[in-house]
Amino acid sequence: MPSLIVASRLSTAGVSIDVLDPPGNDDLWEGEPEELDALLSDDPGPQQWTSGKPTFEQFYARQQEHLGSVEFEPNDAELTAARAEYEASLGELPIIFQVPEDGKKWLFRILARNAAHSVLRFAGDNTSASQFTSPRIADYQHLPLDDLAPDWQTFTVSSESNIDSHRFVGVKYSMPLPNGASLEIFRGVEKGMYENLREGRISAYMRRAHRLRDAWASVATGAATSGPHQAVSVGSDGTGLRIRVV
Asked: Contact, 166 vs 217, CB < 8 A?
């Protein structure tokens, strides 16, 4: 597993993405698939790391790196201007966590378990997702779509549906429309990936996700050509969303 990790978070305010790069060039984990599943089977527990806003030196070094000016010695005027910019933007700068060398494996375990938990929750399988629950995410018992408005007449968990030629497992919602048709929303996970995660085989899930990654572009294209009243989106993690009028 490479040591550079990209973590995304979906909220009502939008999608935020953080790039995590622990120190060193070593991989976060390497070994056999069975060893990976055993490593991720248990919650690694809490961890306390030093955190805080970046220092001016860190801010300026990253700024120079982006500008490609790391080899040039700044003059006093440039440093003064940079410090003023740093102080003005300090409130908006992200919190930096200092990840020690021996904390990389812990970080990988937390992110992998949280990803597995999120995918199973997206499929509506809260029971299977609970095997990957950590104290931090245990407080989030419901997704926004779990609390239905009265207009949604049908709410089917563990529903299976074909999106293009792929089978997905998830949750289907249906709401009647004034013209006699229905608005249908299906959210779920590709069936093979879902079964791997449900059985705790994260390594098999990752391999299948990698193998099918290039197939999803054709799924969205095929869905668009099969009818004018539907939209489909499939992520590289195997999660799929379909909205259509039937």
From this structure: no
Looking up tokens 């009265």 gives: 150
Q: Per-residue pLDDT averaged across 59-66, rounded?
A: 79
Smallest CA-to-CA distance from 112 within 230, 1, 234 is with: 1
Q: If you average pLDDT over residues 197-218, what whole number do you get?
A: 87
**pLDDT score, position 1:** 44
Strand 96-97 relative to strand 51-52, pairing: antiparallel
The amino acid that residue 108 corresponds to is F
Distances (CA, A) of 20 to 17, 99, 241: 10, 10, 27
What's 10's DSSP letter?
E
- Domain ranges in the chain are 52-92, 144-245
Instruction: Give this prediction's pTM.
Output: 0.70
Q: Any idea how long the chain is?
A: 246
3 has pLDDT over 90: no
131 three-state secondary structure: helix
Q: Which residues pair with 166 in a beta bridge?
A: 163
Q: Which residue bears the tokens 């407080």?
A: 139
